[in-house]
């Protein structure tokens, strides 16, 4: 079984588990960093670690819900996993959450799945093989101007008076799952996604390959690309956009100095 087939089967299986646990009533508590977590996050993570680890014992492991093991840094290949990306949506019974799994080799994703169980949407990609939604090819939009574009992000941020150049009229919407946001740019339903706050490798790794294979761009707000399996698995910000839109957004945000 290929890596892609392995992670797609696993994502679909644990998606069903998450839905079952949700229907039974969730237990919710706060992490040390203040973000919420549920019993489903933990169970899905445990199931994925066991299933994928049994199939690929030589791969490393990086997940939001597993204590980080520095041994991953010595592995050429590893799984980078967010068992439930968009926990807030999940625990509020909203559909915009996903299971995100990437296989990373030498710092770059080579196989990826972002599965949104409640929406019946499964985004997949393999390096050099294009990106797909439910088996059908997808492509980023050809939008070439910010005015009138479809943007994923915080509407209050775009409306803030501190911007040097005010943002023009756009259709601005929010989705809890960061991975799912990037996939919506990849398939052209949205033209861009912007987040000026730090994100983790598990938020981005799978969707990074999907957007790349669909022709979208992804960098931080300074225009720097991403690599994975770093000692500190954080990215400072996210700018994902259709290829003609990406430089237009960077022009508006590259001057910002974010706190470390």
Q: Any overview of this molecule?
A:
With 260 residues, the protein is α+β, with helices and mostly antiparallel strands. It folds into 2 domains: 3-137, Fructose-1,6-Bisphosphatase, Chain A, domain 1 (2-Layer Sandwich), CATH 3.30.540.10; 150-253, D-Maltodextrin-Binding Protein, domain 2 (3-Layer(aba) Sandwich), CATH 3.40.190. It is 30% helix and 26% strand. It has 7 helices and 16 strands. A hairpin with a 4-residue loop joins strand 6 and strand 7. Helix 1 packs antiparallel against helix 2 (39-55).
Defining key terms:
alpha+beta, 7 helices, Fructose-1,6-Bisphosphatase, Chain A, domain 1, 260 residues, 30% helix, D-Maltodextrin-Binding Protein, domain 2, 7-stranded mixed sheet, globular, single chain, 5-stranded mixed sheet
What is the topology?
Layout: H1 3-24, E1 28-30, E2 36-38, H2 39-55, E3 60-63, E4 77-85, H3 87-91, E5 98-105, E6 108-116, E7 121-126, E8 131-133, E9 136-137, E10 150-152, H4 155-159, E11 171-173, H5 178-186, E12 192-195, E13 199-200, H6 201-213, E14 217-219, E15 234-235, E16 238-241, H7 246-253
Parallel strand pairs: 3-4, 10-11, 10-12
Antiparallel strand pairs: 1-2, 4-5, 5-6, 6-7, 7-8, 8-9, 12-16, 13-15, 14-16
């Amino acid at each position: 079984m290929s890596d892609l087939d392995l992670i797609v089967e696993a994502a679909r299986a644990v998606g069903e588990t998450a839905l079952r646990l949700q229907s039974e009533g969730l237990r919710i508590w706060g992490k040390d960093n203040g973000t919420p977590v549920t019993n489903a996050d933990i169970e899905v993570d445990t199931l994925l670690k066991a299933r994928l680890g049994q199939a690929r014992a030589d791969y490393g492991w990086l997940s939001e819900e597993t204590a980080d093991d520095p041994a991953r840094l010595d592995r050429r290949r590893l799984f980078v996993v967010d068992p439930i990306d968009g926990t807030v949506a999940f625990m509020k019974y909203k559909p915009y959450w996903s299971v995100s799994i990437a296989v990373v080799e030498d710092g770059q994703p080579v196989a990826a799945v972002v599965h949104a169980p409640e929406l019946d949407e499964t985004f997949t990609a393999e390096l050099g093989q294009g990106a797909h939604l439910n088996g059908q090819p997808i492509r980023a939009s050809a939008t070439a101007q910010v005015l009138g574009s479809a943007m994923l992000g915080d509407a209050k941020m775009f409306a803030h008076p501190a911007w040097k150049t005010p943002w023009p009229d756009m259709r601005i919407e929010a989705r809890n799952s960061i991975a799912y946001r990037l996939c919506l740019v990849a398939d052209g339903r949205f033209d861009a996604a912007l987040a000026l706050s730090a994100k983790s490798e598990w938020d981005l790794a799978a969707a990074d390959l999907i957007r790349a294979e669909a022709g979208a761009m992804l960098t931080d707000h300074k225009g720097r690309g991403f690599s994975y399996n770093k000692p500190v698995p954080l990215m400072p910000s996210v700018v994902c956009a259709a290829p003609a839109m990406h430089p237009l957004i960077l022009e508006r945000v590259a001057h910002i100095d974010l706190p470390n």
